[in-house]
Write a structure and sequence with these properties.
Blueprint: H1 3-24, E1 60-64, H2 65-69, H3 76-83, E2 87-88, E3 105-106, E4 114-118, E5 121-122, E6 152-158, H4 163-166, E7 173-179, E8 186-200, E9 205-224, E10 228-239, E11 264-278, E12 282-298, H5 304-307, E13 318-336, E14 339-357, E15 372-392, E16 397-415, H6 418-421, E17 446-462, E18 467-478, E19 482-496, E20 499-510, H7 514-518, E21 521-527, E22 530-536, H8 542-546, E23 555-568, E24 571-588, E25 592-593, H9 597-609, E26 615-620, E27 622-642, E28 648-664, H10 681-689, E29 694-704, E30 707-716, E31 720-721, E32 730-731, E33 735-744, E34 751-758, E35 792-800
Parallel strand pairs: 4-7, 22-26
Antiparallel strand pairs: 1-6, 2-3, 4-5, 6-7, 8-9, 8-35, 9-10, 10-11, 11-12, 12-13, 13-14, 14-15, 15-16, 16-17, 17-18, 18-19, 19-20, 20-23, 21-22, 23-24, 24-27, 25-26, 27-28, 28-29, 29-30, 30-33, 31-32, 33-34, 34-35
C-alpha cells in the first residue's frame, strides 16, 4: 500500500465531513449530538455489557435494518457489501455451484477466514466447496443469503482477529447477525425491479430491458404471555436470469448463444426469534430458520459441430442446485451464583442437490436423457455452548467471562444417478457423464464426522477513566488434528472524551474444514480404450499420498491493529491500520498430471502397489504451506446533522485500503521433488489482486417530514482476473458506482413507497478482449466486485402496522 493512499483516505474522511459540519453548523439543533448510531451498544468483540461501537478496543461496524432495506437489492450479501467497504461480494458466473452459493470476503481474505454468528452463536457453513477459478477458490463459507434481511435488527462487523474469543475461522474478523426482536407490530413489503442497461461487449452492442426480480417480505411480532415475545419473518424471491455474454464467433451467423450472468433463483425463507422469562432470573429463548433455494445457471454452450458427432443437436447445459438450509437454536439465560449464564444448543444443516438440465451424456448418443440428477452434498453441525460472565469491583471495573463449547460436524457426498457420471454403449469412447456438470459417482461418496471441544477466558478491565485493557485466551481440541491455543491482548486510552487510541494483538487459527479434507469429485474419461479417473481427492487418501499429500493442519495467523477514534457531537471518525500474517495457509493444488515424469512415476508405483485401483491421469488435493501478509487501513467518518429547515442529514464516508502479498508458495511435496507447478500464477494473483485494493463509499441519507432519500457512490479500485500468462490477464478497471433512492413515508401513515436505481449511471467493468473470449461467453471479468449487470431500477411498497 502506498503511504499516499493511506494519507489520502484519512484526509478525505476528515475534510469531507468537516466541510459538511461547517456548512450546516449555524442551522443545527441540540438533537444532533444525541440521536447517533455511534452510541449503539455492541455485543461483538466484547463480552462487557454496555460497550458502544466508539468505546470499544476493536473496530466494529454496525449496519442497521434500515440500512439493509433502503436498497434495491434484497440479497443480504450484496446489501452488506454496498455499505461496508471492507466487505466484498463478487458475483461469479460460469463457475458451477459457486454461481448459486456466492461467498463474501472481509479485507480481501479467503471467505472461510471470517466467522459468522447468528445472535452470537456460530453459524454453519454451506456444503458447497468452491473448486473453480473464482474468488474464494478452495473455500466452503457461510452462505449469507440464506437469511432474509427482514428478519434482522442489525449486523455487527468486527474488523479484527478474534480466534481467541470465538474460535476457528475468525482470522479476518467476525460478522454477527442480530435477529429482530418485537412483541408487537409488523410490516410487509413488495420490491420489484428490472434492468435497463446498454450492454457493450467486444463484438456486440445491445439494449436490455427486463430480467425482473420480485421480492415479497414480511414480519410480525407478538407477545408470549405478558413478558415474552416471538417475531416471525418470511421472504419470497423470484429472480429471472441475466445474460451479458458476447456473440459466439464460432457460429456462421454470430449470435449470443450463452447465458453469462446471474442465475435464475426462486427462494422461500422463514425465521423465528423468541424469548420468554421463566421465574425472576431465567429466560428461555430460541431462534431458527429455513430456506429453500432453487437456482439455475448456465454452463458453456455445446455447438452443433461438437454434438453432431454423437447424433445430437447443439445445446446449452444448465446447472440446477436445490439448497435446503436449516438453523435451530435454543437456550437458557439467567444467573448462577452471581454469574450471568447463557447455555445454548444449536443445530445447522445445509443440503445441496445438483441437477444438470438441458444437457446430454455423449456416450448414450441420440438416446441420451436431457436432465440428470447429479447427487448431493450435506454439511451439518451441532454446537453446545455455555458462557458465564461477572463484573467485579476491581480497578474501576473488571469483567470476567469464561465458557466452554463442544461441536460435532458431519459431511456427506451422495452419488447421483448412473447416467450423470457413467457410460452408455452408443459411443463408449466419448467423455462420460452429463455435459456441463458431471454427477458424483459411488467412488465419490463420503460420510465423515469430527468433534471439537474448547474453553476460553476473556478479561476486560476499565483500569482508569481513560485506560481499558483486555486479555483473552482460548484452547481447542479437534479429534482430527489435535490442539491449538490462541491469545489476544487489547488496549484503549482516551486522552479526552473526544479522542482516543486503541490497539490489539492476537494469534488466530482456522481449522481445515471437513469439506476440504474429504471432498471428492472424479471425472472418468477413456484413453486407449481404458477408463481413466481424474479429479479432486482428499489429501490423506492413498492416491494423494502417493504424490505427497498428507493430513491437513490448521492455518495460523498473527494479527496486529492500531487506530484512533475522534468524536465530537454528531461527528465521529475512526481510522484503524492492520497487519494480518497467515502461515500454513491451505490451497487447492493444480491438477498434477501424468504428463509430468515425476507424477507419472509416482502414480505408476502406486498402481503397482494397488492393482485394484483405477488408472489416474491427474490428481489435485489441498496442501498446507502458503503464507500471506495482509496490510491495510479502514477509515469511517460519520456526521449526523439535524436542521430546522432542511431536515436531517446523515453523512458517511468510509474506505478500505488493502494490500495482500503471498510471501511463501510450496513448490514440492515430499515425494515429488521435481513436481509440476503446485500453485499456478493465476492462483497466486487471485489471492493478491482478486479483490479491490481500494474501496471507498460516500453516502448521504436525508429526511424531511415524510420524504427521504439516500445517495451513495462507491469507488472500486482495479481488480485483476489473472490468466495463465500476463497476456491473458483481464482488468476490471477503476470504477465508481452510483445508487440513489427516493422515499415517501408520512409519519401518520402506515404506507411507505420508494423508487430507486442501483448503478444509476450504468457502469460496467472493462470488456474482456475478443482475443481472450473465443467462445463469446465471458464478455466481462467475473471477478468484478460490483458484478456486470448494469443499471437496475426498482420500486418498493410497504405497510407497517
Amino acid at each position: 500500500m502506498k503511504p499516499s493512499d493511506a494519507l489520502l483516505l484519512a484526509a478525505t474522511s476528515v475534510a469531507a465531513i468537516a466541510n459538511a459540519q461547517s456548512a450546516f453548523a449555524q442551522d443545527r439543533t441540540p438533537e444532533a449530538a444525541s440521536d447517533n448510531l455511534a452510541d449503539t451498544i455492541i455485543v461483538t468483540g466484547t463480552r462487557s455489557q454496555g460497550r458502544s461501537k466508539l468505546s470499544s478496543a476493536s473496530p466494529v461496524d454496525v449496519v442497521t435494518a434500515q440500512d439493509l432495506r433502503q436498497q434495491g437489492t434484497t440479497e443480504l450479501g450484496t446489501a452488506l457489501a454496498n455499505i461496508v467497504p471492507s466487505i466484498d461480494f463478487p458475483r461469479p458466473s460460469a463457475t458451477d455451484g459457486t454461481d448459486a452459493i456466492r461467498p463474501a470476503t472481509l479485507r480481501g481474505m479467503s471467505p472461510d477466514q471470517t466467522l459468522v454468528l447468528i445472535n452470537g452463536v456460530r453459524a454453519h457453513t454451506s456444503a458447497q466447496l468452491n473448486t473453480n477459478g473464482s474468488v474464494g477458490r478452495g473455500s466452503a463459507a457461510v452462505d449469507l443469503n440464506t437469511i432474509p434481511s427482514t428478519a434482522l435488527e442489525s449486523i455487527e462487523v468486527l474488523r479484527d482477529g478474534a480466534s481467541a474469543q470465538y474460535g476457528s475461522d475468525a482470522i479476518a474478523g467476525v460478522i454477527n447477525l442480530r435477529l429482530r426482536k418485537a412483541d408487537s407490530g409488523g410490516g410487509a413489503t413488495v420490491t420489484y425491479g428490472i434492468y435497463d442497461t446498454q450492454v457493450d461487449t467486444a463484438r456486440d452492442s445491445r439494449h436490455v430491458t427486463g430480467e425482473s426480480t420480485v421480492t415479497v417480505a414480511g414480519w410480525q411480532g407478538a407477545k408470549l404471555g405478558q413478558d415474552g415475545f416471538i417475531t416471525i419473518s418470511g421472504e419470497y424471491t423470484h429472480r429471472n436470469p441475466t445474460s451479458r455474454g458476447d456473440v459466439d464467433p464460432r457460429l456462421s451467423t454470430p449470435v449470443v448463444d450463452n447465458r453469462f450472468g446471474d442465475p435464475e433463483v426462486t427462494s422461500y425463507s422463514g425465521y423465528v426469534n423468541a424469548a420468554k422469562p421463566i421465574g425472576d432470573v431465567w429466560e428461555i429463548y430460541g431462534f431458527g430458520g429455513y430456506q429453500y433455494r432453487n437456482s439455475t445457471s448456465a454452463a458453456f454452450p455445446r455447438l452443433d459441430s461438437a454434438a453432431s458427432a454423437y447424433g445430437l443437436d447443439g445445446f446449452l447445459p444448465k446447472i440446477n442446485t436445490h439448497s435446503r438450509d436449516l438453523t435451530a437454536t435454543g437456550g437458557l439465560r439467567g444467573e448462577i451464583a452471581g454469574w450471568n449464564a447463557d447455555i445454548n444448543l444449536s443445530y445447522g444443516r445445509n443440503k445441496i442437490s445438483y441437477w444438470t438440465r438441458d444437457s446430454a451424456n455423449y456416450t448414450y448418443g441420440a438416446g441420451s436423457q436431457t436432465d440428470f440428477y447429479d447427487g448431493n452434498v450435506i454439511y451439518d453441525q451441532w454446537v453446545l455452548g455455555a458462557d458465564f460472565s461477572k463484573k467485579f469491583d476491581i480497578f474501576q471495573s473488571l469483567n470476567v467471562a469464561w465458557g466452554v463449547e463442544g461441536r460435532r460436524e458431519g459431511y456427506q457426498i451422495n452419488a447421483g444417478e448412473y447416467a450423470s457420471y457413467g457410460y452408455g454403449t452408443a459411443y463408449p469412447t466419448a467423455s462420460p457423464g452429463a455435459q456441463g456438470f458431471g454427477g458424483f459417482s459411488p467412488d465419490n461418496e463420503v460420510n465423515e464426522h469430527r468433534t471439537n471441544g474448547s474453553i476460553y477466558l476473556d478479561l476486560e478491565a476499565q483500569v482508569t477513566d481513560k485506560l481499558l485493557i483486555g486479555l483473552a485466551g482460548r484452547g481447542e481440541h479437534y479429534s482430527d488434528f489435535g490442539n491449538t491455543v490462541n491469545g489476544k491482548a487489547s488496549a484503549r486510552y482516551d486522552f479526552s472524551p473526544a479522542f482516543g487510541v486503541r490497539a490489539t494483538a492476537s494469534t488466530g487459527f482456522r481449522a481445515p474444514s471437513l469439506i476440504q479434507q474429504y471432498y471428492t469429485s472424479v471425472s472418468s474419461v477413456i484413453q486407449n480404450g481404458n477408463q481413466v479417473d481424474t479429479g479432486t481427492y482428499p489429501s490423506n487418501s492413498s492416491i494423494a499420498g502417493a504424490l505427497g499429500g498428507k493430513a491437513l493442519e490448521p492455518e495460523k495467523s498473527t494479527n496486529l491493529s492500531a487506530g484512533f477514534v475522534v468524536r465530537s457531537g454528531g461527528f465521529s471518525l475512526t481510522v484503524d491500520g492492520y497487519r494480518i500474517h497467515v502461515r500454513n495457509q491451505l490451497g487447492l493444488s493444480e491438477n498434477l498430471s501424468t504428463s509430468n515424469t515425476a507424477v507419472a512415476a509416482a502414480l505408476t508405483a502406486y498402481k503397482a502397489a494397488n492393482p485394484d485401483a483405477a488408472d489416474v491421469s491427474a490428481v489435485r488435493f489441498f496442501i498446507n504451506g502458503l503464507a500471506t501478509t495482509t496490510k491495510g487501513i479502514d477509515a469511517v467518518a460519520n456526521y449526523k446533522i439535524v436542521t430546522n429547515a432542511a431536515g436531517t442529514f446523515d453523512l458517511t464516508l468510509a474506505g478500505n485500503l488493502n494490500d495482500i502479498d503471498v510471501t511463501k508458495v510450496p513448490t514440492t511435496t515430499s515425494t515429488l521433488p521435481n513436481a509440476p507447478t503446485l500453485f499456478a500464477r493465476s492462483r497466486i494473483l487471485t489471492i493478491e489482486k482478486g479483490t479491490p485494493r481500494q474501496k471507498v463509499t460516500g453516502s448521504v441519507a436525508w429526511s424531511l417530514g415524510g420524504i427521504g432519500a439516500t445517495a451513495r457512490v462507491t469507488y472500486y479500485g482495479d481488480v485483476l482476473q489473472p490468466g495463465t500468462t500476463a497476456a491473458a490477464d483481464i482488468h476490471t478497471g477503476k470504477r465508481a458506482i452510483t445508487d440513489f433512492e427516493l422515499r415517501y413515508q408520512p409519519k401518520e401513515s402506515a404506507l411507505n413507497l420508494a423508487i430507486g436505481a442501483n448503478n444509476l449511471l450504468d457502469v460496467y467493468p472493462k470488456q474482456t478482449p475478443a482475443s481472450l473470449n473465443t467462445t463469446g461467453v465471458t464478455a466481462f471479468p467475473y471477478y468484478s466486485p460490483f458484478g456486470f449487470n448494469g443499471r437496475y431500477i426498482y420500486v418498493r411498497a410497504g405497510l407497517n402496522w
